[in-house]
Amino acid sequence: ARAVVEAELLNADETFEDVFAEFDPNPLGAASIAQVHRAILTEKYGGREVAIKIQRPSIESKLLVDVANLKAIAKTFRNNPNLPLDYYTVMVELEKQLADEFDFVAEAVAMDRIYQSLIRAPDGTARELPLVIPRPVPGLISKRVLVMDYLKGVPLTRAREEMIKKGIDPESPEAKLFGRTLLTTLTAVFGRNILETGFFHADPHPGNIFVLDDGQIGLIDFGQVKQISGRNRETLCK
Q: Is residue 102 within 8 Å of 146, Cβ to Cβ?
């Protein structure tokens, strides 16, 4: 992981320690395409605590070959009446979507675009951000490495476990109030993005929704986003 960061981010006259004062070799989380490590930047780069998303070596070619094989198999059985749907169409769509996930520069742009759409109303006036979106660190972004704010908290998948650890009954009024706050926040964010701009986070599973230490909601992983047309937005509104 460190070797990927060195190859992707460091200038010719820099060492790893010139950029990162601390780097945790144990990943915070790992998925099929990338893993995330906590680090602290040197004062030269702002001295802040960050999360580094690092793409696995050669993963793009490996996964795309897998999908090509699945497409070939699915095409062979495309007209089989025993299959519940056309898996070839599914694999073609998957291939298109996977291509987006390998470009972390595009992910940083998407993250910033959604952030800007939430802090500004369509008429340009400022408004309060309903949740926390990590900000990418300028100058520390490449196709295979993305350095961004570190969010202190736990994914929604572990929220119940954390409540119990802190002595909070998950069925208590306090917990239920948090549940309503969570739903209100997510409804506001996705409502604004889908219905106002048509550009939205397209992978909001519980692992990408964080409950932060201060009680706020965080949203991570902008590798999958979608843009829908004004006509489709109008239809959804209706």
A: no
Token pair for residue 229? 């047309």
With CA atoms as reference, report the closest residue to 71 among 95, 51, 96.
95
Q: How many CA atoms lie within 13 A of 232 on its CB side?
A: 9
Q: Exposure of 217 by Cβ count < 10 A (0-12 exposed, 13-18 middle, 19+ buried)?
A: buried
- How far is 85 from 93, CA to CA, in rounded Å? 14
**φ, ψ for residue 37, nearest 5 deg:** -120, 145
**CA distance linking residue 166 with residue 52, whole number of Å:** 28
- For residue 27, CA distances in Å to 18, 19, 36 come to 21, 18, 5
Spatial distance between the Cα atoms of 190 and 81, rounded to a whole number of angstroms: 38
Whether 99 shows a pLDDT value over 90: the answer reads no
Structure-token match 């990408």, residue found: 208
pLDDT at residue 7 is higher than 90? yes
Cα end-to-end span (Å), the chain? 47
For 17-31, what is the mean pLDDT? 94
pLDDT digits over 58-74, tens only?
Answer: 999 999 999 999 999 99
Element (H, E) at 185: helix 173-192
